[in-house]
Amino acid sequence: MKILILGSGPNVTQAATWPRTPFDSIVAINNAWRVRDDWDYLVHPSDFPEDRQPLVLQRGQTIITHETYVPAQNALGGFVYAGGTMTFTASYWALHQVRPSVMAYLGCDMTYGGTPSHFYGQGTADPLRNDVTLRSLEAKSARLQAIAARQGCACINLSGDPSRLVFERGTAADLTARAVLNDAAIDHALRLEEQAGYSVPSGKYWKEEHRFDTSVIDEIDAAWVATQA
């Protein structure tokens, strides 16, 4: 099963005219549901404004909120010291009891340097807010890629622009996964996370950041980046 995941970066509009194939399912994050009308899942947090949400759902479309993705995420290990744009993907696995072979991302580069910063204009660079856990977006994407790989799923970045994602690059016409990860480094990163004990069952990790040591987070982040070697 191949999943197309759409964020709000300026280049996400490229997907507006892509054929539905070869994707089995389309997941939109926040405002990205506006890009095309054949999405299957819209994922948004509790503070996503109502006036930005779709008024009518087509048959087969589902909205996934924190009430669903937080417990689903916990079922797969929980929110471990990290928030970020892509944590919902684990909830997709848990909710549907499937294991995608590919999660392909577009509009999720998290660079925010251009004008406009988002496909709908200037927006808030949420992952770059003052957050003790989001010190390395590269590490967070490396963590997702490593954990997905152990579930038999490849993470691919369909963007051709500068990106904070460490995923291998691909195109909608070529979703072949070629990345080779360091298994020993993955085991090491997981051990560091277990030792740190920074799991937050509520998902609201920012309410517990007083107990997070940035030096520990930096060590864990470095360990996840090393999985790319």
What's the pLDDT, averaged over the residues?
A: 83
Tally of alpha and pi helices: 5
Q: What order do the strands of the largest sheet run in, or round the barrel if closed?
A: 4-3-2-1-6-7-8
Report, as a whole number of angstroms, the end-to-end distance: 27 Å
Please provide a written account of the structure.
There is one protein chain. This protein is α/β, with parallel strands linked by helices and 229 residues long. The protein is 25% helix and 14% strand. A seven-stranded parallel sheet has the order 4-3-2-1-6-7-8. Helix 3 links the parallel strand 6 and strand 7. The longest helix has 14 residues, at 183-196. It starts with a strand and ends with a helix. The model is unreliable at 81-88 (pLDDT under 50).
Topology:
Blueprint: E1 2-6, E2 25-29, E3 41-43, E4 62-64, H1 66-75, E5 79-80, H2 88-96, E6 102-106, H3 137-149, E7 154-157, E8 168-169, H4 183-196, E9 199-200, H5 214-225
Parallel strand pairs: 1-2, 1-6, 2-3, 3-4, 6-7, 7-8
Antiparallel strand pairs: 5-9
Task: Compose a concise summary of this entry.
This protein has helices at 66-75, 88-96, 137-149, 183-196, 214-225, and strands at 2-6, 25-29, 41-43, 62-64, 79-80, 102-106, 154-157, 168-169, 199-200. With 229 residues, it is α/β, with parallel strands linked by helices. Helix 3 (137-149) crosses helix 5 and helix 4 (183-196) packs antiparallel against helix 5.
